[in-house]
Amino acid sequence: MSQLLRLSRALLCSGQQAAGVGALQRAFNTSSRTQHAEPQPVAAEAPSSVPRWIAELGAVRTDWTREEVAEVYNTPLLELVFRAASVHRMYNDPSMVQRCTLLSIKTGGCPENCNYCSQSSSWSKDTGLKAEKLMDLEDVYQAALRARESGSTRFCMGAAWRGPSQVGNRQWERVLEMVKRIRGLGMEVCTTLGMLTPEQAAQLRTAGLTAYNHNLDTSPEYYPKVTTSRKYEDRLATLEAVRQAGISVCAGGIIGLGEGPQDRVGLIHQLATLPAHPESVPINRLVAIKGTPMEGNEAPEGIDLVRCVATARVVMPRTVVRLSAGRLDLSRADQALAFLAGANSIFDGDKLLTTPNNDRNEDQAMFDTLGLRSRPAFMNYPAGNDTSREFEAGAGAGAGVQAEAPKAAEAMGGGGGCCGGPKKAAVGGGCC
Ligand code: SF4
């Protein structure tokens, strides 16, 4: 056994793996310098010098400090991707990526004023986007059928509303019927309809909704630069209503809004310190749209997206992290790095609400090249409280559970596939 291997093993076995690359590198340097001399003892790094996020890598925690999240985010990229990939393998099969389809069921005319969005009525004169009516039930159902045939396992419906309270009962009933019928196709069903009351959330749950999307967009401090028609607290209240109704929470954000790195950290910190981690965190890269106040914003680099994905993966180990809008001009290499760092979902189809998206055939070719497989519907969402499977079984709302952290040694030896992680990590039947 080489001296380096012995030194590596000694470090890993003594619980010092968290010292990571630095300690191994020092050990290697020592080894190289002394290869013709007597072996020298290597001083182990004091445990207190190991950051908690590395010492407890893979722990499911909701007590992250913003400083800790910043430390994760600011880790040198390749080291961060390595850590994130290690966490990803504790809980997920890294070859599985879910394909989702997003349909705008009610386009334009939105009374909110999100500065990045083409659907706000505030600048419809500049964008030229006309308000449309809520789509017919049958048209939406047919779109879901097509999505299922092309391999999507999750169907998301977005309405440009402040919330269902702004529309009449007939439209709301139609949306509930859409949820019910598409759920009957065996697909996961997600909606994004604006702010919800607890009663509306309960109705969606009864209709069979799998998940509700409500993005926080950015940090609390930067939020007023994104919209002034609602408050960050309003978003949090809807997320709480969704959680209480027993629906999976889907909440993420957008990069490229003019925010700084501290705002990306702030967003991820908010998500990771909710009472339970969202089951789903979409990370969008702004697609700047002509006529909106953010039309001149530069698109962030793919590497920026990878850094956000990796940070989200480290701090929310069991969550499905979704590569969402803004994938169209990302290279395959950027996307591959994002999958390595823990992204396990994409949106497919030629359109995402009102913006163009990647071609399905090209995505399939990318999956083939990278050895990825489509993640089936209703794999247990290991985070949060209720799961869709519990819903199917009629188990009703349950208490929130956050699993115990896997031991670091177990985690490091996870060796590919979600079965490498401890079974108790998954709520409601395990991830395997
Ligand atoms: S992002 Fe949603 S809420 Fe904001 S303007 Fe667009 S459709 Fe309305």
UniProtKB/TrEMBL annotation:
Q: Which GO terms describe its cellular component?
A: mitochondrion
Gene3D superfamilies reported in the protein's UniProt record: Aldolase class I
Enzyme class at the top of the EC tree: transferase
What GO molecular function annotations does the UniProt record carry, in alphabetical order? 2 iron, 2 sulfur cluster binding; 4 iron, 4 sulfur cluster binding; biotin synthase activity; metal ion binding
**One BP term from GO:** biotin biosynthetic process
The entry's protein name is biotin synthase
Q: Which family does it belong to?
A: Belongs to the radical SAM superfamily. Biotin synthase family.
- Keywords, A to Z? 2Fe-2S, 4Fe-4S, Biotin biosynthesis, Iron, Iron-sulfur, Metal-binding, S-adenosyl-L-methionine, Transferase
Which co-factor is required? Answer: [2Fe-2S] cluster; [4Fe-4S] cluster
Domain of life, per the record? Eukaryota
Query: Which Enzyme Commission number(s) are on file for it?
Result: 2.8.1.6
Q: SMART domains in the record, alphabetically?
A: BATS, Elp3
Task: Give the pathway.
Answer: Cofactor biosynthesis; biotin biosynthesis; biotin from 7,8-diaminononanoate: step 2/2
The organism encoding this protein is Chlamydomonas incerta
- HAMAP family, alphabetized: BioB (MF_01694)
Where's the Radical SAM core domain? 95-327
* NCBIfam families listed in its UniProt record: bioB
